[in-house]
Amino acid sequence: MAFVKDMLRMWAHSWKRFISIAMITLLGVAVLTGIYAGCRDAFRSTDRFFDAQGLHDVQVLSTAGLSNGDIAALRKVNGVAKVQAERSQEVTFDLDGRKSATMQEIGTNGIDQPYLQEGRMPKKAGEIAVTRKFIRDSGKRIGSRLTVTPESASSDTSDTNDTNGADGTNETNGTDEAPSFPTKLTIVGVVLDPQNLSNPDGYSAMTSFRSTATTDYTFFAPSDGVTGTLYTSATLLVKGAAAESTFDESYENTVKQVTDRIDGTVKTDRQKARRQELLDAGNRKIADARAEADKKFADAQSQIDANRQQFNQQVDQIVSMQAGAAAAGAAANGANAGAAAAAGATTPQLDETTRETMRETIIAASPELTQAKQQLDQAQSQLNEQKASTEQTLKTKENELKTSIPQVRWYVQDRQSLGGFSALKSDLDSIQSLGNAFPIVFLLVAVMMSLTAMARMVEEDRSLIGTYVGLGYGRLAVASRYLLFALLACLIGGGLGLIAGFLGIPAFLLVVLQGMYVMPGLRLEYDWLYGSLGIALFVVGVLAATIYACVQEMRQTPAALMRPKAPRAGSRILLERIRPVWNRIGFLGKVTARNIFRFKSRLIMTVGGVAGCTALIVCGLAINDTVADLGIKQYRDIYQYDLMVVSDDSDASAMRTKVASDGRVTSSLDVRIESGDLTVAGSGDGDSGKAGSSGSESIQLVAVPEKHLSDLGEMVTLQPVSSGILGTSGVGKTGSLKLDDDGVIVAQSAASALGVKAGSKVRLTNGDGVQATAKVGAVNRNLIGSDVYVSETYYAKLFDSKDAKNTKNSKSSEDSEALTWNAMLAKLSGSDASQTDYAESLEEDSSVMKAVSCAHMADSFKFDLMGAVVALIVALAGGLALVVLFTLANTNVSERVREMATLKVLGFFDREVHHYVNREMMILTVMGVILGLPLGRLVGGMLTMALNMPSLYFEVEVKPLSYVIAAVATMAFALLVQLFVNPVLDRIDPISSLKSVE
């Protein structure tokens, strides 16, 4: 019992060490669990939401639309739980200018169901549900009416559903029709699209990383009123996928098994079958056209024959009359009147030759008959020519049919191809990577501080330990005094750390995340396993340090332990050998130098602890500086143009005329801008059609006219980049990069996220959903947005003639449609404010879809999520620095109590003693700061390189002010610690402290 009481008394006396170990453990466990828990809560709530709304696991698109046969084939694939055929249509409407939207049919099989936020779901034809973004932009509300105009081509199959048949029509076959939706619409509900969780009222509304030419909104309509038997896509749910977390590798493996089966035989068979359907439809059209033409020609021939018969009857009647008259005249000359009358009553019989001669004579003598015969002959001739021409045309169409219908292609995509999904996953993964890295530093510092504190604690009880061992107590029993002390401190600190880690930090992070994404059903959850392992990690580290400290002392004999520890033998330090310097240092300076460099363990612990804390602060500020400069570097340095204007294809000419007439443009470049995707191409020829298997990135595809390729460098700074160290990248000389017809130029932001480099093969998807495998010619320095630049010729090679390898007679250059330059990059005159105002005024024009001012983007760019995480990291790092300095300062004082008592006996005043001790701590702190500043730059560079976020590349930037802030903050913490240490120095009693153990 006396042993326990003494142990408790010892614990109470060492309360400062207890608090230090508990605080370090609290901070470490909070960092270890907090960021992880916040990201995990977001992952889980999003996964539950996706499962509840039936977000598709696989989506199948086709360049020729999908038929009922395709849907039936997908249902038979092993592992497919549900298949939903979907219809959609692109429409336009007037909303402060022309805007576009996608009319999406609400599926009836429970897949991709919109989440109702307000009002009710549409049920009748003409009713729609819209997103909150549309409500915010339009000012409309539930009950408002809207009239839309269908686009000339369907949304997802515009290039291939309009396959020309034999007669030039735009139907794919005799029965399939493109989807058509009502145009008079009424808003009855506000919904959240499960494919895009971006918060239109939050930060994402102010931090758009790119402006694209895609549809602006999505309208959800019921099946009632929707016509058309051709489907734009098919969405699938995979068996067993809902049981897995959509963000885990196990989910990806489950889905991949099904996509591989579809890519195997189903895709190939249905592509061939679909093309055969189109061929059969074309042949039927040709046969129908031939039958219809034959019928028309037969009717025309019948009409000509009837007219000719009537004409011949008229001529024959005249011939008969003339022949009868001639016979009557001959009888009158040689016979009586009765005989003449008898002769006139009968028509003389003429042979055929005589009759034909008389016909020709009669026709030639009569202009009317001559004209009638010519008309009949001309009609017959024209009919014969039409017959020959039609037959030749039909035969030509029969010969051209196979080459005019392109190969049908399927594209099998998973959730990674959804821009909203990949953005959320990448954001959370990047933040989680910070949560995985920082606890390592906290753990190392905790072990170092625990070793320092516990080693001093054991050393203070050296004689007592020898006494207990001499009395027969086991070494393990004696060591348990310190092990239980450290264990209790870790458990209390770890418990408080779990509260902060699973409640405080996640609540803070989720508030920021909800400003970027809408996450219905979000709740905080505790992970027993991860929380227990987090505490156990710090318990093991701290106990290991305690055991090491105990072993170092207890390996001596009880007699040696009960004697005071011999003073450290005197030795020279390196500075003493530099005589010119050493001789000019005062007495107290020499003492300070010896104290610093002779006690190596204290030097290493202090400098290492301060350097680690300083590095964490610099790392946080480095990320903050990097994010803060993104907008300036991108929109002031990389983008040389001041304005980007995008229009619909049909309004491109009007848009350019409008901008030119305003007189604000000093130079411009017409380009084509499309919203697409870049996917890391798989093995083979890249025609697998499976997107998202190795990562996908939403891009802005910029096609440049062939005659103006050299002008691109005047609008965009073209600099080749290569991977560097410390978070930097090797940037080539400005202007050394040129766009050519051998490959595309990929933005650094996309290349970094997907691991793409010059020479890589990637799969590009253009604005019409057509995919092609392209070569990466170079990677261009780019920080915000994912631009991919392609020449006009290479664009045509990729998308216009991509079926040339499968069809020997692809479209010739004369038949290929020229690209519509639907966008303009322009340099403007005037101030930044006037340029911003001009861009806003352009958006009000009906011919302009989007107008972006680089000056406005540079000033308004924000990234609140990263800013919040940086603030959290800096705060925790500052707290750790304070605890570390407090622990080291108290340990330093406890080690030198006899020294301080000696100084007081020698006549040193309290202020002089303060200065004597604090000077050493300040020098060690300065040394730690000097080491921690470059270390923080190194750690910040490595962490920044790990932050692969959609459309962002973090080019590490640490401003001089950040170094100053980190240094000043650490020094301020050191000064604050002195306020706690000085009273301890004042309470040292010289008499009791100088007593020797007898």
Structural features:
998 residues, 28 helices, alpha+beta, six-stranded mixed β-barrel, five-stranded mixed β-sheet, 55% helix
Structure description:
This protein has 998 residues and is an alpha+beta fold. It has a six-stranded mixed barrel with strand order 14-16-22-19-21-20. The protein has a five-stranded mixed sheet with strand order 2-11-1-12-15, covered by helices on one side. It is elongated, with a radius of gyration of 44 Å.
Secondary-structure content class: alpha+beta
Task: State the end-to-end CA separation.
Answer: 27 Å
Any idea what the radius of gyration is?
44 Å
Largest sheet: 6 strands, mixed, barrel
The strand order across the widest sheet is: 14-16-22-19-21-20
**Portion of residues in helices?**
40-55%
Number of helices: 28
Low-confidence sequence ranges: 153-174, 204-213, 339-345, 683-693, 801-816
Strand proportion, as a percent range, falls in 5-15%
Average pLDDT rating: 80
Quantity of strands, as a count: 24
Please state the overall shape, judged from the principal axes of the Cα atoms: elongated
Can I get a quick summary?
The protein is α+β, with helices and mostly antiparallel strands and 998 residues long. Helix content is 55%, strand content 14%. The strands form five sheets. It has a six-stranded mixed beta barrel. Strands 2-11-1-12-15 form a five-stranded mixed beta sheet, with helices on one face.
